[in-house]
Amino acid sequence: MIKKNFHEKIALVLSFLILNNYLLLSLNSPQLMIKINFLIFLLTVLIFYSKNFLENSFLKIFFLFIIFISLGTPTFEWDARSIWLFHAKRIFYDQSIFSIGDNYAAFSHNEYSSLAPAFASSLAFLVGHWNEVFPKLSFSLMFLPPLILTYAFLKDTQYLIFLSIVFFTIGKFLFNGWTDGLVAIYFGLSAFLMYLLFFIDTNFFKNRLLFYLLAFCFFISLTLIKNEGIALLFILFATTFIIKLYKGQLGKDISKLVFLSISFLPVIFWKFFCYSKGIGDYYINTNILLNLLPRLDDLNNYKLISYFLFLNEKFLIALIFFLLSFWIKLDKELFSFIFIVTAMYIFILFFIYLSTPYDFYFQLDSTAARVIRSLSFLLAFFGLYNLRNYKISY
Amino acid sequence: MVEVKIKKFKFFFIILCVIQLFYIFHFRSGFKYEIIKNPFNENAGISYALSAEVIEANSILKKHKVIDFNLSEGLKKDTYLYQRTIEFNYPIRINESSKLIFFLYAEDIPNTCKVIETGKYLKLTQC
After folding, report:
1. What are phi and psi of A286, to 5 degrees?
2. ipTM score of the complex?
């Protein structure tokens, strides 16, 4: 028999250790401490696997297969090689996440935050050398905290459907060394934790420190995985703020929101460091209005963005599933929360694409299918969660 | 009766997950059996991840134990070769003022440069 809150606690420990690894590398800690931290992570995974193997056996078996695929594939795609694993390689050889301060190889977007690369470099510390295959295994391991946490809420067949959603929406991003899959799943679970802490009727979650700590770790991770995560977490806070303000409950919850907003601090420090070293984001550094204004009044631009974002087959299927789920069982509060989050993100995506300094078509063609992944996962996940207690009549 | 239908429902999703994983593995991963045999080997997967020119540049640099290098204009114009050479050779760095310059095999080498090593695809010179 597994102890109460076992999955929540394992998810918390794992996500804390991922963040602690980042902190250790930020503080130029001795390599021994970084190795011990990673070993504790692996030990925790082992405890998760060994404690009643039959409990959550599907995740355990399927994840072993993901590890197998990850260890059998080279890192050959551009983002994985030239951004994420190159950052990891630099951290491995220079033993600090701040080594990018020299802005060497500027094409690799040195301003991107390095939570996943830092974790990959620590695995290389443990192994003792670098190569083109195993470091990206760390990216796969970072999926474990959200995947394990979900089991606390969706059991048995529901969890199988959840895994099916993960394989469908995230797919090869589970092991290919990109961070888009991590953003999608951490965003989905961050939205879920926000919902549990601020919207759900019961006080069960609102009164427990464990869930605040989980939210804190997941929120920090989301912002430090990729720039997109900062915008997504901001959307979650803004949506919560707006709904609470509308319902006149802001006074009651504002202190919790302020406490959780501390999770933006690490990424603010990182951005400040980059700014102080003159390492800028090409998008922000260019004149946004100069790119945006000429594109605003051309209807074809909106059509093209809509084509790339909304005619994505994964997004469409997830959206249909979400709408169907809420048509079967309407939870107004949950629906409005997800609807506002989705609408805000789509608005931001339109704004970003219309103001891109890069070639408009190239930017859409190379990124739209990846950024919409976060919404596809969010919609499908909440569609499933909404039906968790629904009884099918045979 | 209900029990049987629930079991069928569960079985359906087990099969669905297995099919999805197989699809990702077989069609989307680039999985290589040669790599899984020894994924922690220092040279694992390089021939699948990089072009022969980039691998050759690395072996020449290691052989001569250099700490920095530069690339010819011809190599710099090729974005793929430029970026992959930089990232794969790290911690050996590209340095604009380095006297050791790589040229493509077919490129003309200036008179001021002396060829140190000629490979199959590249030439390392001292200028």
Report:
1. -85, 160
2. 0.93
